[in-house]
Each structure stands twice: as structure tokens, then as C-alpha cells.
Amino acid sequence: MDSQYIDGLLFTKLIRAGADNLSAHADEVNDLNVFPIPDGDTGSNMLLTMQGGAGVTPHENEGIGAVSRRAADGMLLSARGNSGVILSQFFDGIAAGLEGKETADAKDVADAFLRGVEHAYAAVMEPVEGTILTVVREASDYAASRTHENVTGYLSDFLYKANETLRSTPELLPVLKKAGVVDSGGAGLIYIVEGAAAMLNGDAQPERESHTHTAPANELDLDRFNEDSELTYGYCTELLLRLQRAKTDLELFDVDVIKNYLQSVGDSIVCFRTGSVVKIHVHTKTPYKVLEFCQRYGEYLTVKIENMSLQHNNLPSDSKLADKPERKAFAVVAVASGEGIKQTFREMGADCIVEGGQSMNPSADDFIEAFGRVNADVIFVLPNNGNVILAAKQAAKLYADSDVRVIESRSIGDCYAVLTMLDTSSGDADEIEREMTEAMNGVVTACVSKCIRNTEMDGFLLHDGQYIGFVGKEIVSADNDRRDTACMLADRLDFTDHEIGIIVRGADSDEAEAEEIASHIRKAHPGREVFVINGGQEIYSYILIIE
User: CATH fold of 8-201, please?
Assistant: First the structure.
């Protein structure tokens, strides 16, 4: 069908169709950035982000402006990975462009997409061309420059240019050309728009191949809260409040009124206004108080209240959290995977560990949950992965209860160095942040992992199953033997200005083998201290840190 106008109901169907099509191709998108080690998760991250918005159910006679805003808000909280965050910001811009509209024609959609591009670029400090950003910008510019009788025609032109730009991404980004792939985020975006366009055309949608990319469901265990239980974790309370003219002056209403009240009855606060709708997320033991207070200013579009004691995923795995801890001045939230690494970071001073890392990026909402648990005036966040930084920053913007500062740590080694030097005794947040950032200078992190395909990179002829050692994105050693690969990798590291070496062994490693690697380093660099940590991480057999 040639749709001249899109309303709230149809917009919802388009979002769901886009998510379904991406679900059918998520593994393909993952494979585009799984090269040559299995750390690619762009497809999964984008899908989980989309699913955060696809669950929106339009209310009766609800216009496209309101529906697109609720979908965007869901994506903002669900966003994970760089591509997921950029995607959520793109839809945030679309919602801004459609604000107040009941329906949208092709021109409205074109303008909203351009607004989405602006938001997507603004989310990235240093935008890189040859990525999803380039694909969405060039496609939006091209489609907006043409005249369309209906939305179907607009999407057709968008896809034409998006595919053309995607094919050119290897010429814009050398790492893609070296790997022989196109940009994974751009490919994921195209699958989303293709799904929406197919639905709009009345074409059959591809069936989902699996549900492996959906977020783990919160399983209810009723035994966690029986007749004798005490309310320990409180209620996760999520609301959409429509401000009412009969109750407040819409032009003069200040959302800080609600934020300030939420701080008195709970934590893990997210509260922001878009148009006449206020999005509220809070953990509280008294949700009825929140409902009563907020209803002074409007009426509820949606209400969700969950006892967190019944939710596996809401229970902190790294602490025996009882009642909300006493408010403190400073706290550190760090991202890590592998029980050994997590325990090490706790012992070094991290107040809360967010589960995640390579191939398992936490969402903005995961960070917000952690922020609430630590209950501090100033929270320092250590993402420890370049693909996690944007989600952490997005959560920091949404969280209203603390001053959240993201330290752009990109590896486990960065985090180790920061925690080693952590000192909050000055009481000066700016000074502490500066010292944490400086602590990462000079730290070197190298990794050993297993290659998953035959290829040629960085002068090495690699084959499936071979072990490879790399520093950053550069492969510097390769061998069929895991120990030899690690030793050759260590030999390539410059210990001149470094006194300490840490070997973090993964889940597939061997204790005796790790000690052999440590002995190799000690012999090659007399006087250096070398320690072995049983990290238990996946993907990386060994992580070598020198500081």
C-alpha cells in the first residue's frame, strides 16, 4: 500500500517490522564486525535497542508524535553499544521532529529523519565517517532532496542511497577495507528500514530465525518473597505521565518539581519531559506516594510497578544489598566480565560492577540501576570498553540523582591502573576525575584470543582456530600454540617505562601455562614484578597489562 500518511498505530507497526527484520539478520550484522575474533555484537546491540521501542502499544487515538516519543524513550534506556546508542539518538531526533503531530506525510518523515541525523551526530564526540552515521546522513539528505507522493516512495529513495553508501564504507574507513567488510551498524540500519518498508508495501515479513538476541527475561521466582519476607529491594516503578492543563500550567511547569520529590522517596531516578509527557523511572519502597504526588500534575498513560525481589536481573550480583546504603560522597561503577576480574575490581575499590564487556555491552538502563545502588553524590563510571562509553554517557545524562562522570577507560588495563591509583581523600570531584584520567596514561593492554576464520591481516596469514595476540587493533603474534602466542605477544611489549605486569587468564586458560608465561616475562625483563590473576573472562585467553 502507498501510505500517504502515518498515524500512531502504523508507526508502531513500522517499528516492530523493522525490529523483526533486524532479528532475522542479526547474526549477519554481528559477523560483519567479528573479524578475526568473535567479539562482534552490533546486530545484537541494535536489536535489543530496537526492542526497547518496539514494545510500545499506542493508546486510542494517540498521534504519531506521542507514540514516536515513547518508542524513542524506550530505545534510549535500552541502548547498548555504539551503534545502539547512535540508533536510539536517531529515533530520539525523529520523535523531536514529529512532536505534536497526529499524522505524518512524506515531507514530515523526511524532516524528522534529518532531525534524527542531527541527534545521532551530536551523540558522538568525534564522529567517524564510514559508519552508520554516514549511511543515515547521506540517505536522509538524498531522500529529502526528492519529491514524494507518499511515505513508501520516501523510504524507497532512502534505501537506494543507504545501500549505495553502505557499499562505499570500506573506502571511507580503512579498517573495513582491510577486513573486507562493510560497516555493521549501517547494515543493521538498512535491515530496520527494509523491514518497515516491506510492511508498508504489504510484503510478507521474514520470520525470526531465533530469539537468541533478546534480552534475558526477568524470571519470577515467587519463593523469593513469601509471607515472612521483608521488602528489601523495593519496587521498580516506571510511569508515563501526561500533564493536564486542568492541573498545571503546561508552559510554566518545571519537571524539577517531580525530580526533587523522587529524590526524597527513592533512587535510580530517570525523569525527563518531552512535550506534555513526563517519563519517570524510580526505585522506591512506596510507589503509592510517587503515584499520588505525580497525579497532582496529570494523568497516567502507563504504569508499571515490579517487586525487585522477584526479578533475577534486578538483584545485584556483586553485593548483599539490603536497605538502600547510606548516601556517600563518591562511588565507582566499573564494567567487567569474568568472576575473577569482577572480584579484583571490588577489592581495589569499585563499589558496583556492571556485568559486561566485549560482545556483551550493558544498556543505559543497566547503568542507571547501578547508579541507584551505590547512592552517591558523585559517581565515577569506568566503561572499560570503547563500545560501552556511549551507553554510559547516555545513562549519565538521563540519571538525575547524582553527578555522574564517565572516565573513558577502554580496557581492563585502564581500569586496573585507575583503581590502583584511586584516592578520593581530597574531596574534590574535579581533581579526582583528573587523576583517574591521568592514571590511564602509559598503560598498555594486550590480548590473546582465538581466530575464527581464514584471513590475512597485519602481515599474518591467519587460519581458523589459530591463536592471535594483538595490541589495540593490531595483530602482533600468531601461533597454533596458546602459550607461544602469549609469549611472543609479551616479547613485543616495551617494558622500558613499566615496572609491573599483570596476566589475566581467561576461562579457557591453564594455571600452569599462565605461570610459564609469567616466568618468560620475568626472565626477559629482570626486576619487573609479574602477577597472575584468574580473571575467568570469555573470548580472551589472556589479557596482558603493563603499567
Answer: 1.25.40
